[in-house]
Design brief:
Keywords: Calcium, Hydrolase, Magnesium, Metal-binding, Phenylalanine catabolism, Tyrosine catabolism. This protein is an alpha+beta fold. It has 9 helices and 26 strands. The strands form 7 sheets. Strands 6, 7, 8, 13, 14, 16, 17 and 22 form an 8-stranded mixed β-sheet that branches. The longest helix has 14 residues. It binds manganese (II) ion.
C-alpha cells in the first residue's frame, strides 16, 4: 500500500502558514466539538479543521470500505481498530481531496461550509478512550539523573535498566487534553530531617516532557507481538506531559514505583500524528550496549527525529523556553517497548497509550523535567520576567511543542498546554 499522502511536493488548496505544524503532509487525526455542538472525528490542514464525519456522509470516502458511522464517533478507537491499511487509505484520500489540483470540494461552496471549520469554532477533545496507560522510563540520561539524585551517583542506573525497557502501569482516568487546568495535588511526604510524614499540598510539582504512542488491537491474550511487527500496531503519537509531585514520589515510590505522585494528571496534545506521517523522519537511536536479549533486537531505524521544547509561563506573563530535547535521545525505542510489554502475553487494545518516559538529552539545557533542570531545586531557573523557579508555581502554564523538519517538509504536533491551579478546595456545604 503506497503512502501517497507523504508526497513532499504536494500543495493544498487550503492555505498553510509558514512553519505550520499541519501542512498537507501531516494529516493527523483528532476528535472535536463543532460550532453546532456536534462531536466528530476530524483532521487539520493549516489552521482549518476538517470534519471527516461530514465528508464521509457527503460521499467523499465512497471508494474505501468504511462503516457509515466510523467518523461520527466521540473517540478514534473504532477507526484505529480498522488497522493500518485503512488508516493509509483514508490519509491518502484526504491528501487527494485537498490537493491543490483537485477542484471537487474546493469548488463546492455548499460542501465546504459543512466540512471546514476555523479553529475558534471547534473544541478539541481527548482523541481516544484510553483503556490502559503504561509509562516507560526509557531515557538513559533521565534515569541516570534521577538515580543520581534520589539514590546513589555511583550506581545511578539499577542493574536491570540496560536490559529491560522499564515501565509501570498508570491510570487512564486522569489523562486530559491540552487546555484543561490541573490542580496541585495533596499527599503524604516525608520532609528532610523529619521523623514522621506530613500531609499537605505537594511543594514540588513538576512536568515530565514525554511523548506517547497509541496502539491498535494487537494480539490475543497470551500472544507476544514480535518486535519486527510492533510498528504495524502503532497508530500514531502525541505530546505527553506526565505531571509529577516529586516530594510525594520520593516518599512513596519504594518498593513498587510511582503511585499518587503521578496519577493525579497527565496531559496530551489533541492531534494524533500517524506513524506513517513520521516515516520521513526516521533515525537511529543511541547504540545499545550491552546488546539486549534476542526478543528486543531490532533491524533498521526505529527512532524518530522529533524536536521537543517546553515553555513555562507565569500567570499573565511571557513564556520562557526552559528546555529543548529530542525524541531520538530515547535509549529504548517504541518497537522494543511494545515487544517487551507483550512478551509475557499481556493484551494490548485499540486506544491504549504508552508514555515514553521523560526525554532528557545529555546537556543540562536538554533535560526533560524541573527536577533535573534545577537539580532538585539547587539551581533555580531564571524566567524572562526576572522571577525564579525551582518547581512549578500555582498559576504557571506548561506548554510543550514538538516538530520534525527536513529540507522539504516540516510537520508537528501542535502543543499540549495546561495551567497549574492551587489545590482543589471542596465546596463547603451550607447548612
Ligand atoms: Mn513519566
Amino acid at each position: 500500500m503506497p503512502d501517497t499522502a507523504n508526497n513532499p511536493n504536494r500543495k493544498s488548496w487550503i492555505s498553510v502558514p509558514t512553519d505550520s505544524d499541519f501542512p498537507i503532509q501531516n494529516i493527523p487525526f483528532g476528535v472535536f466539538l463543532t460550532r453546532d455542538d456536534v462531536i466528530t472525528i476530524g483532521t487539520r490542514i493549516g489552521d482549518i479543521a476538517i470534519d471527516l464525519g461530514a465528508l464521509h456522509q457527503l460521499g467523499y470516502f465512497n471508494e474505501i470500505p468504511l462503516t457509515d458511522d466510523i467518523f461520527l464517533q466521540d473517540t478514534l478507537n473504532d477507526f484505529i481498530s480498522d488497522g493500518k491499511k485503512t488508516w493509509r487509505l483514508v490519509r491518502n484520500r484526504i491528501a487527494e481531496i485537498f490537493d491543490v489540483k483537485n477542484e471537487t470540494l474546493k469548488n463546492n461552496e455548499e460542501h465546504r461550509k459543512i466540512v471546514l471549520f476555523t479553529l475558534d469554532e471547534i473544541e478539541m477533545q481527548l482523541p481516544v478512550q484510553i483503556g490502559d496507560y503504561t509509562d516507560f522510563y526509557s531515557s538513559k540520561e533521565h534515569a541516570t539523573n534521577v538515580g543520581t539524585m534520589f539514590r546513589d551517583p555511583d550506581n545511578a542506573l539499577l542493574p536491570n535498566w540496560l536490559h529491560i525497557p522499564v515501565g509501570y502501569h498508570g491510570r487512564s482516568s486522569s489523562i486530559v487534553p491540552s487546555g484543561i487546568p490541573i490542580h496541585r495535588p495533596k499527599g503524604q511526604t516525608m520532609p528532610a530531617d523529619a521523623s514522621e510524614p506530613v500531609f499537605g499540598p505537594s511543594k514540588l510539582v513538576d512536568f515530565e516532557l514525554e511523548m506517547a504512542f497509541i496502539t491498535t488491537d494487537a494480539n490475543l491474550l497470551g500472544e507476544p507481538i514480535p518486535i519486527e511487527e510492533a510498528e504495524d500496531y502503532i497508530f500514531g503519537m502525541v505530546l505527553f506531559n506526565d505531571w509529577s509531585a516529586r516530594d510525594i514520589q520520593k516518599w512513596e515510590y519504594v518498593p513498587l514505583g510511582p503511585f499518587l505522585a503521578k496519577n493525579f494528571a497527565s496531559s496530551v496534545s489533541p492531534w494524533i500524528v500517524t506513524l506513517d506521517a513520521l516515516e520521513p523522519f526516521r533515525t537511529d537511536g543511541p547504540k545499545q550496549d550491552p546488546k539486549p536479549l534476542p526478543y528486543l533486537n531490532y533491524k533498521g531505524k526505529k527512532s524518530f527525529d522529533i524536536n521537543l521544547e517546553v515553555d513555562l509561563s507565569p500567570e499573565n506573563g511571557a513564556p520562557t523556553t526552559i528546555t529543548k530535547s529530542n525524541f531520538k535521545y530515547m535509549y529504548w525505542n517504541m518497537s522494543q517497548q511494545l515487544a517487551h510489554h507483550t512478551i509475557n502475553g499481556c493484551k494490548v487494545n485499540s486506544g491504549d497509550m504508552m508514555g515514553s518516559g521523560t526525554i532528557s538529552g545529555s546537556t543540562p539545557d536538554s533535560y526533560g523535567s524541573m527536577l533535573e533542570l534545577t537539580w532538585k531545586g539547587e539551581k533555580p531557573i531564571k524566567m524572562s520576567d526576572g522571577t525564579e523557579r525551582k518547581f512549578i508555581n500555582d498559576g504557571d502554564t506548561v506548554t510543550m511543542r514538538g516538530y520534525c523538519k527536513n529540507d522539504k517538509v516540516r510537520i508537528g504536533f501542535g502543543e499540549v498546554s495546561n495551567k497549574l491551579l492551587p489545590p482543589f478546595n471542596p465546596k463547603k456545604v451550607k447548612k
